[in-house]
Sequence to fold (218 residues):
Amino acid sequence: MKTQYFDYHGQHLIVYFAGWGTPPSAVGHLLAPQNYDVLLCYDYRQLHCEFDFTAYRQIRLVAWSMGVWAAERVMAPCALTSATAINGTGLPCDDRFGIPRDIFAATVVGLNAANRLKFERRMCGNQQTFSAYQQLAARPTQAQIEAELTALYQALQQDSRTDLIDWTHALIGNKDKIFPARNQRRYWQQRCPIREIDGEHLLFPQFHHWAQCWDGTE
Fold:
């Protein structure tokens, strides 16, 4: 796993787990609350993390898409003030609770440059958001996203544990074309409060402040 750390000399920490194949710059525009540092986690070819979380009084977790599954495995030992899942579940390859298995497997087998663009168009939902996403800094290479997806798919077959952390919020984009909204609702309805947003799989362009992820306000 790769990380980017922003030290604002805060006593508290926001930890973000990205979606598969997405750059940390996808959330680079979000403003942090006063007294918070920010740690961005991405690229799940392996999930080892050496970061020292014990230095912080409060830790708020924000995980998007495949980052929900990854975060459960990395952040389980940490005491969390809040944990927000955005357009993802703890069973990301699942017919009832995640991305249908056949679609997930077909994505792994058929991933190429053209299909990557199709996926990103579906993730963004409209041409304006897609064009902006294509301009983001440090987007991973084709080889990197293929290797990451292969590693994730293999790991998902071996580890289907859920509820390794206590999620406090689930945000669902009602137009999500990647993780079906109905499957997300089914997964989260007995676990934590759900907030639905009129949006696609990529919701962050609608936000300008990290606090909107866990309470809808600044």
About this structure: Helices lie at 66-75, 101-110, 113-124, 127-134, 142-158, 181-188.
